[in-house]
Amino acid sequence: MRHRIEYSSSGCYTKHLFLKRRVKAAVCRTMKYENVDVPCLISVLFTDGPGIRAINSEFRKVDAETDVLSFPVNEFEPGCFDADNCEFDHTSGKYNLGDIVISVPRCEQQGREYGHSVYREVEYLTVHSVLHLLGYDHVDEGEMKKQMRNREKIIMGEKE
């Protein structure tokens, strides 16, 4: 399946080819695991702390930096992707799922804290965000969060 990822960046993150490769791999694995069998479009913005803070403040009214933000275009029940209820992008010929914003410095910091590379952290956060675009959420410590975390672990484990 040929999913399309449109990359953009603020700051000095335009040259991170390895980050883009990891994002693409994570998107493809997540879509496969979730049985998304139509070509989809996702926009990804690489930014820094102040950049993600501004976006977080503007769209979520939370004046704080974070590692990743997800902005789904569609509303799905978790695990129930439905192309018939998905926005279609006529320019690309793909189903638009939404936008992901990733703070590269936060990924570097969290990678160090968790004992792995920035690339692995970007990959994990991409899986996390794609699940949000597909209807999963974790607003509380309940069953939905457990379901999402379980899926993240399985998808990340497929690679290893």
Summarize this structure as a short list of keywords or feature phrases.
160 residues; 46% helix; Collagenase (Catalytic Domain); five-stranded mixed beta sheet
Strand content range: 15-25%
Q: What does the radius of gyration come to?
A: 15 Å
CATH topology: Collagenase (Catalytic Domain)
Distance between the termini: 21 Å
Tally of strands: 5
Largest sheet descriptor: 5 strands, mixed
Mean pLDDT figure: 91
How much helix, percentage-wise, in residues?
A: 40-55%
Domains (count): 1
CATH architecture: 3-Layer(aba) Sandwich
Give the topology string: H per helix, E per strand. Answer: EHEHEEEHHH
Broad CATH class: Alpha Beta
Computed structural class: alpha/beta
Label the overall shape: globular
CATH superfamily: Metalloproteases ("zincins"), catalytic domain
Give the low-confidence spans. none
Topology:
Elements: E1 4-9, H1 17-33, E2 40-47, H2 49-60, E3 68-72, E4 88-89, E5 94-103, H3 104-114, H4 118-133, H5 143-159
Parallel strand pairs: 1-2, 2-5
Antiparallel strand pairs: 3-5, 4-5
Helix pairs in contact: 1-4, 1-5, 3-4, 4-5
Task: Kindly describe this structure.
Strands 1, 2, 3, 4 and 5 form a 5-stranded mixed beta sheet that branches. With 160 residues, the protein is an alpha/beta fold. It has a single domain (4-159), classed as Collagenase (Catalytic Domain). The protein is 46% helix and 19% strand. It has helices spanning 17-33, 49-60, 104-114, 118-133, 143-159, and strands spanning 4-9, 40-47, 68-72, 88-89, 94-103. Strand 4 and strand 5 form a beta hairpin. Helix 4 packs across helix 5 (143-159).
